[in-house]
């Protein structure tokens, strides 16, 4: 039985403790496992899930220390030693986790003096625990008079629970933290927000408690993500929870999920709408794809950008269903192929149908109609989304073959990363290769290419600057000088990358950057009344949500359900003549057919 228990303990710690405890200890907030003794595996449940403070209710009965909430609930097999001290000693001996911070808060339920004396006597049997520099033993509940605190050993600390009780400097030095009953200040249930009156009361008592220069804790608190976030924002140092795994997971990822206002902003452009929705010929198509850019991604960027984007000025909006031919949740290859060819296909397929047969894409069809065509992306040029507009391969991983397809394509412009793939390929025989974005606008050649990098492009946060907007602006200038109708696909690829990484900052900055490119497309459309601009996504990534934020400070908290794509619908915005054709709810492959219908009306 003992060996079996050791195996269970080992599995628990390997699975949770090394990562969770280390991660949690890197934050200033301690997670307090309230009522831990009520869990199926006391101590291990809290410790392995990363809690850094553990509550233990203790009763002295028949000279033994039992762990129970009330005396009537005492089980003689559940003692302070069996449930906590021995397991902690085992964890230390097995060296399964580094203990950087750990509080054992012993809540004394019986006589203060007798119980505390027994606790001290018992603790002395575990010198490794009481002498550990990162382990604190804090006495809460029934405590001796503060005047007597200094009579107790240096490994014993106390929880102060009465701000009206004045403590001497000596007594205060023995106080480890301050704890108060939350219900005395608010009846909030952790849903919605604190009322203004309650917020003022709660903030005032925290401020008063902080004057003692000790960590602060509320007990009797609501136990939810909303509550945890509110208490962290209010400056509560020790968060009470009966859900240690969920609370630790939430708090340790919070820094990556908070966007705070940066210098990256999009100046909102308000279109004039003179030609929007007009039933007149469409000559030029600008299709803009935010990879992984769902409605929440757009919402978060708008809120962080002062409440609006150039994108959110548009009036004609639809929703696309993104399921692929063989899966509920699409990948970028199948989704982009649907947009580019009008055919639903299998995940990973580039420009081929579910049976591997080549399908003509929109750039090939329009080239035959005398159109110029081009693609811009912040991804590799062989990435799944851009590749779907010029290549035909059964699998997106066939990078070299996709690169060959670019060389034999009919594209007139490409701007992308991934130039290293073409070191041994004669791309310059097909395209006039230039070395900066501004050269695109003035280039007289019929076909021009630009590699923005040999590998991946940096993100906006890494200093990519306004490359996407400038590439869009210069490509449109290139097409305008050709005096031919054109089709241009523009992809903001890294919204998806940061979605996979569950990084709120990255999602928002890349979406704001995408909006700058959208602005250039809208400006062009306003000057060229025969231009239709479409803005959509291939799919949503990460199950992104934005539960909290602050409009005044442009702060947004993101949360995630997955590191992968989701099956949710994505919005499509349209601006220009016949833009109302794109309203409604429909399959993503219908976008292709609607585009051709707009053009064939000419």
Automatic annotation (TrEMBL):
Entry binding sites for Zn(2+): 291, 496, 500, 538-539
Q: Which GO terms describe its molecular function?
A: alkaline phosphatase activity; metal ion binding; phosphoric diester hydrolase activity
Active site at: 332
Instruction: Point out the signal peptide segment.
Output: 1-23
Enumerate the UniProt keywords alphabetically: Magnesium, Metal-binding, Phosphoprotein, Signal, Zinc
Residues reported in the UniProt entry to bind Mg(2+): 291, 385, 491
The UniProt note on the cofactor reads as follows: Binds 1 Mg(2+) ion. Binds 2 Zn(2+) ions.
Record keyword Metal-binding present: yes
* Gene3D superfamilies linked to this entry: Alkaline Phosphatase, subunit A (3.40.720.10), Phosphatidylinositol (PI) phosphodiesterase (3.20.20.190)
Q: Set out the biological process GO terms recorded for this chain's protein.
A: lipid metabolic process
| CDD domains reported for this sequence | ALP, PI-PLCc_GDPD_SF_unchar3
Q: Which InterPro entries match?
A: AIM6_PI-PLC-like_dom, Alkaline_phosphatase, Alkaline_phosphatase_core_sf, PLC-like_Pdiesterase_TIM-brl
Cofactors, names only: Mg(2+); Zn(2+)
Q: From which domain of life does this come?
A: Bacteria
**PANTHER family tied to this protein:** ALKALINE PHOSPHATASE
The entry assigns this protein to a family as follows:
Belongs to the alkaline phosphatase family.
Put simply, this protein is called: Alkaline phosphatase
Q: What lineage does UniProt assign to this protein's organism? A: Bacteria, Pseudomonadati, Bacteroidota, Flavobacteriia, Flavobacteriales
């Amino acid at each position: 039985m003992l060996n079996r228990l050791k195996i269970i303990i080992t599995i628990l710690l390997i699975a949770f403790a090394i990562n969770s405890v280390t991660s949690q200890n890197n934050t200033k907030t301690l997670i307090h496992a309230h009522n831990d003794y009520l869990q199926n595996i006391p101590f291990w449940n809290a410790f392995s899930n990363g809690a850094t403070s553990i509550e233990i209710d203790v009763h002295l009965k028949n000279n033994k220390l039992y762990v129970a909430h009330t005396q009537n609930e005492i089980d003689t097999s559940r003692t302070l030693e069996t449930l906590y001290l021995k397991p902690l000693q085992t964890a230390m001996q097995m060296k399964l986790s580094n203990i950087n911070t750990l509080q054992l808060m012993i809540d004394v339920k019986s006589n203060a003096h007798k119980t505390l004396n027994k606790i001290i006597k018992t603790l002395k049997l575990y010198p490794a625990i009481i002498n550990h520099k990162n382990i604190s033993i804090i006495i809460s509940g029934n405590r001796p008079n503060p005047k007597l605190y200094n009579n107790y050993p240096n490994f014993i600390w106390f929880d102060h629970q009465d701000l009206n009780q004045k403590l001497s400097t000596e007594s205060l030095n023995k106080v480890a933290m301050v704890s108060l009953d939350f219900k005395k200040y608010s009846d909030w249930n952790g849903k919605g927000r604190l009322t203004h009156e309650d917020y003022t009361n709660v903030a005032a008592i925290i401020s008063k408690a902080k004057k003692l220069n000790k960590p602060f804790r509320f007990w009797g608190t609501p136990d939810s993500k909303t509550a945890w976030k509110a208490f962290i924002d209010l400056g509560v140092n020790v968060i009470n929870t009966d859900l240690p795994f969920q609370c630790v997971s939430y708090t340790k990822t919070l820094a990556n999920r908070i966007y705070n206002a940066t210098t990256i902003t999009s100046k909102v452009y308000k279109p004039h709408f003179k030609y929007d929705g007009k039933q007149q010929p469409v000559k030029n198509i600008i299709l803009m794809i935010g990879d992984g850019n769902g409605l929440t991604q757009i919402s978060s960027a708008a809120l962080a950008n002062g409440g609006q984007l150039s994108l959110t000025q548009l009036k004609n909006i639809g929703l696309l269903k993104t399921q692929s031919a063989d899966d509920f949740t699409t990948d970028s290859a199948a989704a982009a192929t649907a947009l580019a060819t009008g055919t639903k296909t299998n995940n990973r397929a580039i420009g081929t149908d579910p049976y591997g047969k080549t399908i003509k894409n929109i750039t090939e069809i329009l080239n035959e109609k005398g159109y110029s065509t081009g693609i811009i992306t912040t991804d590799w040029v062989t990435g799944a989304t851009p590749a779907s507009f010029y290549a035909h391969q059964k699998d997106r991983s066939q990078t070299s073959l996709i690169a060959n397809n670019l060389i034999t394509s009919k594209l007139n412009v490409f701007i992308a990363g991934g130039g290293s793939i073409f070191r041994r390929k004669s791309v310059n025989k097909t395209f006039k290769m230039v070395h900066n974005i501004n050269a695109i606008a003035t280039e007289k050649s019929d076909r021009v290419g630009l590699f923005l990098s040999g590998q991946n492009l940096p993100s906006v946060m890494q200093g990519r600057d306004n490359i996407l907007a400038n590439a869009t602006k210069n490509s449109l200038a290139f097409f305008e000088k050709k005096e031919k109708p054109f089709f241009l696909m523009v992809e903001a690829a890294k919204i998806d990358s940061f979605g996979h990484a569950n990084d709120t900052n990255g999602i928002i900055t890349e979406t704001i950057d995408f909006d700058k490119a959208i602005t250039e497309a809208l400006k062009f459309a306003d000057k060229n009344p025969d231009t239709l601009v479409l803005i959509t996504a291939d799919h949503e990534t990460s199950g992104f949500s934005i539960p909290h934020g602050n409009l005044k400070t442009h702060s947004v908290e993101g949360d995630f359900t997955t590191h992968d794509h989701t099956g949710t619908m994505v919005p499509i915005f349209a601006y220009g003549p016949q833009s109302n054709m794109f309203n409604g709810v429909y399959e993503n492959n219908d976008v292709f057919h609607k585009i051709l219908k707009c053009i064939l009306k000419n």
